[in-house]
TrEMBL record, chain A:
Entry keyword set: Membrane, Transmembrane, Transmembrane helix
Alphabetized InterPro entries for the sequence: Cyt_c/ubiquinol_Oxase_su3, Cyt_c_oxidase-like_su3, Cyt_c_oxidase_su3-like_sf, Cyt_c_oxidase_su3_a-hlx
Localization per Swiss-Prot or TrEMBL: Cell membrane; Membrane
GO biological process: one example: aerobic electron transport chain
Signal peptide: none
A Gene Ontology cellular-component term: plasma membrane
Annotated Gene3D superfamilies: Cytochrome c oxidase, subunit III, four-helix bundle
One Pfam family here: COX3
Name this protein carries in UniProt: Heme-copper oxidase subunit III family profile domain-containing protein
SUPFAM superfamilies to which the protein is assigned, alphabetical: Cytochrome c oxidase subunit III-like
TrEMBL record, chain B:
Bilayer topology annotation: Multi-pass membrane protein
InterPro entries per record: Cyt_c_oxase-like_su1_dom, Cyt_c_oxase-like_su1_sf, Cyt_C_Oxase_1, Cyt_c_Oxase_su1_BS
Identification of the protein by name: Cytochrome c oxidase subunit I
Gene Ontology MF term list: cytochrome-c oxidase activity; heme binding
Family: Belongs to the heme-copper respiratory oxidase family.
One GO CC term on file: membrane
Lineage: Bacteria, Pseudomonadati, Pseudomonadota, Alphaproteobacteria, Rhodospirillales
Localization of this protein: Membrane
Length: 184, 553
């Protein structure tokens, strides 16, 4: 018994939703600090970004598609849908998440082969920190979506996991141009 | 109709039938019942106990530092041990005492009571944040005692990544983990204040204490992750050899200072905003009046929180950052004085020509104002570009932030303790002893830290364990003051626990205060309110109190 009265004047968001948004705002500040550092490092170096734009673009496409599937899953978990209809898009999105990680692994290998290793270039070093941290977040997301596909989740749970997934996607949407595209 | 009448739509029959009128302290006496509780009041007590322990540990570091500095020669501690002593003092006091002190003890206990709710929005999350805090704290303490960290609480690079001996990585991990506790607490408070207010409890009927905690929570949620990132980057460099801050590895040492102070300046307001909320309640209660300029005081909290994000560069005037950046940071730092002064003037106006009752809690509140104003004014000296060059990294800076964080925040913490103790425990403490401890605190504090202003201005650097003989008289005064201050902090540790057993019983409202928390019995029942109150009066309205004072609990 939490004693919630629901009488907070002018409040519509549920406590869970509000809490999740606040959690995501924490994450925004964390990645924001990293993006700021990346931007500063970028300004301090000349020449185009050395990373593989093609693989980066492929991964962007993969994540955007996964977000679409998550949106479909949220739609299908609503009360008007039959049971288990959200399962397929959830599995699809989680699989795309795994595909992203696989592409990322291939890319790391290629980077290492090219000699793009942590070293005297702050921008390259931050690339590794940022992409690794993003991969950790994505792995948690994959586990969440896969877990939801196994049970029969509440619509609000699917929505919450979806919100997290979109956020991880959004971080990539900022990391991709900052790390791969901005000309020196 | 009494002030605590029930909205027919909210006080459900089921909730009322299940209402247990026994105080929260009687809900279970086993250790297990405390360690698994989700009652916000019991979690607050858990925090109180843990925080008191960490305060004592942090104080040990301070005692070592002051003893060493009593003589010019390094005779008590080696340079290495001295560095570890002040680092332990700083890390423990900042992250394991000051940041959680008022919010997690008094915010936890009081916010639901003040807004007319039965608990926080996420009671289990609240307990989880206590566990994270305690485990992170113990882990950090073990690290500090076993391996030692000699970087100071600021973890400055390249010292912390290249040269420091000791468990920098582990200590950083401990602080990083404690950050989650801060974030969860901030998140819990924001959601609670948004969604759990009783019917009629509009934003502008909230006590200023709640406003202050709302502003604090925003800082906790938005600033802590930046510290987390700074610590992650230290781990990346020290643990994985990825150069971020070390110039030899391609890193940028200034980057750390930017990230660190982006958190640590707002962290000062995490410590001071709740203190300001406490002092506002003390002043209003013992002046017997509504807070003068309520809306200005409320908005000033938000203004301080917002400006707090924009001034971090004032710690870096001598770091070689852009001169133009320094000019902007200096100007913005001066601006913070405006909402701070708004609060001080409004407190003064609340007291002006009031029938003031000089109780022990109010004396703590007045001490806060004196020490905070002095610390704030010397802050303006440090915010000035030219003067800061002279005072930077001297004990002048140490004195300045101790006036704010100890003279301000710790004094307000004790003020809160003395004000809400009867509510929390149902007992009154001996007033004369409490007044004596305020007096000792005020004299002892000034004796400890005022000489450090003079020393700093004369050129005594901070973090040095030996100094020229002509400085000794000031250092001796400071050490003597620290002894007095320690006594002032120990005294309540004697008479407050004493009062638990032998203190006079306090009624629901011993101070004649106006907040909702004073309209329930002392100690409050587990679910706070028999019926959720419907608020029809403005904040700090004494008539409503008069109505309920007659009603026995
Ligand atoms: Cu500052």
């Amino acid at each position: 018994m939490t004693g919630r009265t629901g009488a907070g004047p002018g409040t519509t968001a549920s406590p869970g939703q509000l809490g999740l948004w606040l959690f995501l705002s924490t994450e925004v500040m964390m990645f924001g600090a990293l993006l700021l550092a990346i931007t500063l490092a970028r300004l301090g170096r000349s020449g185009a970004a050395p990373f593989d734009k093609g693989l980066g673009a492929a991964n962007t496409a993969i994540l955007l598609t996964s977000s679409l599937l998550v949106a479909v899953a949220v739609e299908r978990s609503g009360p008007c849908s039959g049971p288990g209809r959200a399962r397929l898009p959830l599995v699809g999105a989680a699989a795309l998440g795994v595909a992203f990680l696989a592409v990322k692994a291939v890319e790391y290998r290629a980077d290492f082969a090219k000699g793009l290793v942590p070293g005297p270039d702050l921008f390259v070093n931050l690339y590794y920190v940022a992409t690794a941290l993003h991969a950790v977040h994505l792995t948690i997301g994959v586990a969440l979506l896969a877990g939801l596909a196994l049970v029969r989740p509440q619509p609000s749970t699917v929505e919450a996991a979806g919100l997290y997934w979109h956020f991880v996607d959004l971080v990539w949407v900022f990391l991709y141009p900052a790390l791969y595209l901005v000309p020196g | 109709m009494t002030a605590t009448s029930t909205d027919p739509g909210t006080g459900t029959g089921a909730a009322r039938a299940a209402f247990d009128p026994r105080p929260y302290t009687a809900a279970g006496h086993t250790l297990r019942s405390w360690l698994t509780t989700t009652d916000h009041k019991r979690v607050a007590i858990l925090y109180l106990i843990a925080i008191t322990g960490f305060f004592a540990l942090g104080a040990v570091g301070a005692v070592l530092v002051r003893l060493e500095l009593a003589t010019p020669r390094p005779d008590l501690l080696s340079a290495e041990t001295y560095n570890r002593a002040f680092t332990m003092h700083g890390i423990v006091m900042v992250w394991f005492f000051l940041i959680p002190s008022i919010p997690n003890v008094f915010g936890n206990f009081l916010i639901p009571l003040m807004i007319g709710a039965r608990d926080l929005a996420f009671p289990r999350l609240n307990l989880l944040s206590w566990y994270i805090y305690v485990l992170a704290g113990l882990f950090t303490i073990v690290t500090l005692v076993k391996g030692g960290v000699d970087t100071g609480w600021t973890f400055y690079t390249p010292l912390s990544t290249q040269f420091a001996n000791g468990h920098v990585l582990l200590a950083a991990a401990g602080v990083f983990t404690a950050g989650f506790s801060s974030i969860l607490t901030g998140l819990n408070f924001i959601v609670t204040i948004h969604t759990m207010r009783a019917p009629g409890m509009t934003w502008f009927r909230l006590p200023i204490f709640v406003w202050s905690h709302y502003a604090t929570s925003i800082l906790l949620v938005l600033a802590t992750p930046v510290l987390a990132m700074a610590l992650i980057l230290i781990v990346a460099e020290r643990g994985f050899g990825v150069g971020i801050f070390d110039p030899r590895l391609g890193g940028d040492p200034l980057l750390f200072q930017h990230l660190f102070w982006f958190y640590s300046h707002p962290a000062v307001y995490i410590m001071v905003l709740p203190a300001m909320g406490v002092v506002t309640e003390l002043i209003s209660t013992f002046a017997g009046r509504a807070v003068f300029g309520y809306r200005f005081v409320a908005y000033a909290s938000l203004a301080i929180a917002a400006l707090g994000f924009l001034v971090w560069g004032h710690h870096m005037f001598v770091s070689g950052q852009s001169m133009y950046a320094s000019v902007v940071f200096s100007f913005l730092s001066f601006l913070v004085a405006v909402p701070s002064a708004v609060k001080v003037y409004n407190w003064a106006a609340t007291l002006y020509r009031a029938e003031i009752r000089f109780t022990a809690p109010l004396l703590y509140g007045l001490s806060f104002i004196g020490l905070f104003v002095f610390g704030g004014l010397t802050g303006l000296i440090l915010a000035s570009l030219a003067l800061d060059v002279h005072a930077h990294d001297t004990t002048f800076v140490v004195a300045h932030f101790h006036y704010i964080m100890v003279g301000g925040a710790v004094t307000a913490y004790l003020g809160a303790m003395h004000f809400w103790w009867p509510k929390i425990t149902g007992r009154l403490y001996p007033d004369a002893l409490a007044k004596l401890s305020v007096l000792l605190l005020y004299v002892g504090f000034n004796l400890t830290f005022f000489p450090q202003y003079i020393l700093g201005w004369l050129g005594m650097p901070r973090r040095y364990h030996e100094y020229p003989a002509e400085f000794q008289v000031w250092h001796l005064l400071s050490t003597a003051g620290a002894g007095l201050l320690a006594f002032a902090y120990l005294l309540p540790l004697v008479y407050l626990p004493w009062s638990l057993r032998w203190g006079q019983r306090a009624g629901p409202n011993p101070w004649g205060a106006t907040g909702l928390e004073w309209r329930v019995p002392s100690p409050p029942p587990t679910h706070n309110f028999d019926r959720i109150p419907t608020v029809t009066w403005e904040a700090y309205t004494p008539e409503a109190t008069a109505e309920t004072k007659d009603t026995p609990p």
